[in-house]
């Protein structure tokens, strides 16, 4: 079995609870938080600011039209929500380099005691 291609520039690859994560290099110290039917969540630290963040990786978000709509709806809602009891959306990225390879995206949620 061949090894996976190297992580693209500005990203690194790490296995967390038997799942391969490829995240931006600024997000360090990935630690598992939980998982469910649609994805998994890890905590990390933004090395630029020191802020603790939650990283959500969706499993097969484009497997079906229903999954794609669900993922899109979650992103749209989180983008506009500003409430002390809702974690705000900080970043969304994909490790894929081209649209032909685009199968995965990862949302970044800011977990900060200051509410920012």
Question: What does it look like?
Answer:
- Its cofactor is Mg(2+).
- A hairpin with a 5-residue loop joins strand 4 (39-46) and strand 5.
- The chain has one helix at 65-80, and strands at 11-16, 19-24, 27-35, 39-46, 52-58, 88-93, 106-110.
- The protein contains one helix and seven strands, in the order E-E-E-E-E-H-E-E.
- The protein has one domain: 2-Layer Sandwich (Phosphorylase Kinase, domain 1), CATH 3.30.200.20.
- The protein is mainly beta.
- Mean pLDDT is 78; it is low at 112-116.
- Helix content is 14%, strand content 41%.
- Strand residues, percent: 35-45%
Number of strands: 7
Q: Give the overall pLDDT as a whole number.
A: 78
**Rg result:** 14 Å
CATH topology title: Phosphorylase Kinase, domain 1
How would you name the CATH homologous superfamily? Phosphorylase Kinase, domain 1
| Discrete helix count | 1
Distance between the termini: 44 Å
Mass-distribution shape: globular
* Number of separate domains: 1
Alpha-beta content class: mainly beta
CATH class: Alpha Beta
Query: Which stretches are low in confidence, meaning pLDDT under 50 for 5 or more residues running?
Result: 112-116
Protein name: mitogen-activated protein kinase
InterPro entries: Kinase-like_dom_sf, MAPK, Prot_kinase_dom, Protein_kinase_ATP_BS
EC number: 2.7.11.24
Domain Protein kinase: 27-116
